[in-house]
Description:
By secondary structure, the protein is mainly alpha-helical. It has 15 helices and no strands. Helix 3 crosses helix 7 (126-135), helix 5 (82-106) packs antiparallel against helix 6 and helix 10 (219-239) packs across helix 12 (262-289).
Amino acid sequence: MELSLIHIFSVLAAAWLSGRIAQRFGLPAILGELAAGILLGPALLGWLGPNEATRVLAELGVYLLMLYIGLEMDPGAIARASGGGLLAAIGGFVIPFAAGMAMMEFFGYSTEAGLFMGTAMGVTSLATKSRILVDLDLIGTRIASVMMAGALFADTLALVVFAAILSLAAGGSISELAASDLALAFAKAALFFGISALVGMRALPILGRLIKGAGFRGRTSSFTIVLLVALVFAEMAKLAGLHSVLGAFIAGLFLQQGIISKRWSGEVRDVAHDISIGFLAPIFFVTAGFHVSPSALVDNAGLTILVIAVATVTKIAGTALFYLPTGRGWKEGL
């Protein structure tokens, strides 16, 4: 793998500059970073493009971003917000999913295409939502806990459904999909969360006492231990057919429970923040823009506009409608 420092410098500089411009207009920096990737990447100007080095840095960036978010958020607040988050996740997934399916069926596309479009319209990106909350300085608020709990549910559901869709596309039938693949995918996801809870609540406090007894108390040692534990959770998530970012986020929540001393916990969060938000995560979002295909958008302009409109309306309406039973009202739901 060739490490082009000039290329990394260019991507990071573009991320920083575009992020600052977005913030000047009162927008999250992530929007500027994505726009920079589209404008400067292969889609338009072609000045920058993906390579293996930036791909690796981008994956590390989203992993560390989710670890930082997990370290920053209150596990108790996430648990208390899980009811409202689940309702929001169901409404924000089921309604757009059904709309996407119906729309593709109406235009004569295959069932597989309808399932894929429905999933794409229903999914909520945990990493993107987390970054937006950071950019808007909302991390730590009650509504952020609701949104993150909802994104966790929605992402898990979308990944389970997507795994089943891939099986269907490989030659399975709808009946087989419902009977076997979905059940297996849900079982693996449930097993991951069960094992994570067991390890997080039982094993990590014991490990924390052993680490403190062995004299590993400094900031550097604490940060290294946090990374190692988070990598284990990320790998467990991958083995369960989920994404590593889910594992990193869950690890961050549990790592607050005594594995690192209170003296160093704040500094460990600061290090994770600076490395992710200040360096690696912007690379991820800029390089995401590299993969936009202008020809696909131009050749299917009418369908693209319709998908964006329907996805936006159904996501907002579905979330707000299903959130009403919480008693928080339309305003918060919207």
